[in-house]
Design a protein that fits this description.
The strands form two sheets. The protein has a seven-stranded mixed sheet with strand order 6-5-4-7-8-11-10, sandwiched between helices. It has a four-stranded antiparallel sheet with strand order 1-2-3-9, with no helix packed on it. It has two domains: about 80 residues, no CATH class; about 190 residues, Vaccinia Virus protein VP39 (Rossmann fold, 3-Layer(aba) Sandwich). The chain is an alpha/beta fold. It has 13 helices and eleven strands. Helix 3 crosses helix 4, helix 6 runs parallel beside helix 7 and helix 11 packs across helix 12. This is Methyltransferase.
């Protein structure tokens, strides 16, 4: 089957019509929008993998927790909560809902800073870990419309590397807005197409597709999308979310040693190089690999109000 038969007719982010294939179907493939620069993984003729399956095995989730870069994550959580406090100044004990809350570290910090907290997860191991680590109970499931119908509106909704995983990102944004009160703040971070991907693409091409571990590590059946600022702003506006800021940032959620081992470097090499790279990330010398997104919820339509 040719790549032309598999290519999407338009960009899922900005709606542009100029899509180009970055990797030939195997049967999975990756394409990038020439208009906004966002990149997308497609399953092609392969059977799609549900995002809900990634962390629903206890051993997989424990490995993820062990590999997480807690120092980096804590710093990013603190910066986000501080900005939300500034944006919600005047709101007494603002309410925040964290979509895909994982082990609950962000919600625990928000609770300690005076926020009223709630969240959900698709992973039962994550829900168990959140309860054990922080005494926080999360809702199980990803039907945000149903949750919005049963819960009060929130002053803020947050997501940490969620939109890159889900089957339907537009529906995710729609559900997030329905959880928000009019004028409430949505924050999320998500992978960005950056210099790492450009280098990975050329490395793959120069080796005639024999070395593609960096390329495959960056965008795959789990991390399915890498957005650009332009593409993300178009998505937000389409879902009645007014962009406040969509900014490139440094955010490596796992230890650098873990990234390096995942692309084939032995531990003896990955450990010292990883330490150097983490130092580089701390002082802002590595590529800005994520987008930090803030948007404001516009008024819901009458139909959406009735659904709530």
């Amino acid at each position: 089957m040719s790549s032309a038969h598999l290519m999407a007719e338009s960009c899922p982010a900005c709606g542009g019509s100029q899509m180009r294939v970055l990797s030939e179907p195997r049967p999975q493939y990756v394409e990038r929008c020439s208009s906004c620069g966002s990149a997308f993984f497609h399953f092609g003729t392969a059977v799609a993998v549900s995002h809900s399956d990634q962390y629903n095995v206890e051993a997989n989730y424990q490995r993820y927790l062990e590999a997480a870069n807690e120092t980096s994550c804590t710093q990013r959580f603190d910066e986000t909560i501080t900005r939300l406090e500034e944006m919600l100044r005047g709101v007494d004990r603002p309410a925040v809902f964290d979509i895909g809350a994982g082990g609950g570290d962000f919600l625990a910090m928000a609770r300690d800073r005076g926020f009223r907290i709630h969240g959900n997860e698709v992973s039962q191991p994550a829900i168990d870990a959140c309860r054990e680590r922080h005494g926080i109970d999360l809702a199980l499931g990803d039907d945000l419309r149903s949750l919005a119908a049963d819960l009060p509106s929130y002053d803020a909704v947050t997501m940490w590397c969620v939109i890159a995983h889900v089957d339907d990102p537009d529906e995710l944004l729609r559900g997030a807005r329905m959880l928000l009160r009019p004028g409430g703040i949505l924050f999320f971070s998500t992978p960005r197409y950056c210099a790492i991907d450009w280098i990975a693409l050329w490395l793959r091409r120069l080796t005639f597709d024999r070395y593609r571990r960096v390329f495959d590590r960056r965008i795959n059946h789990l991390h399915r999308r890498q957005y650009s600022r332009r593409g993300m702003e178009a998505m937000l506006r389409r879902e009645r979310l007014m962009p406040i800021s969509v900014e490139p940032a440094i955010g490596y959620g796992l230890h650098m040693e873990e990234y390096l081992r995942s692309i084939g470097l032995p531990s003896a090499v990955a450990k010292p190089i990883g330490r150097v790279l983490e130092t580089g990330a701390n002082v802002g010398l590595l590529p800005r690999n994520i987008l930090n997104v803030y948007a404001r919820a516009m008024e819901s339509t009458e139909t959406e109000f009735e659904q709530r």
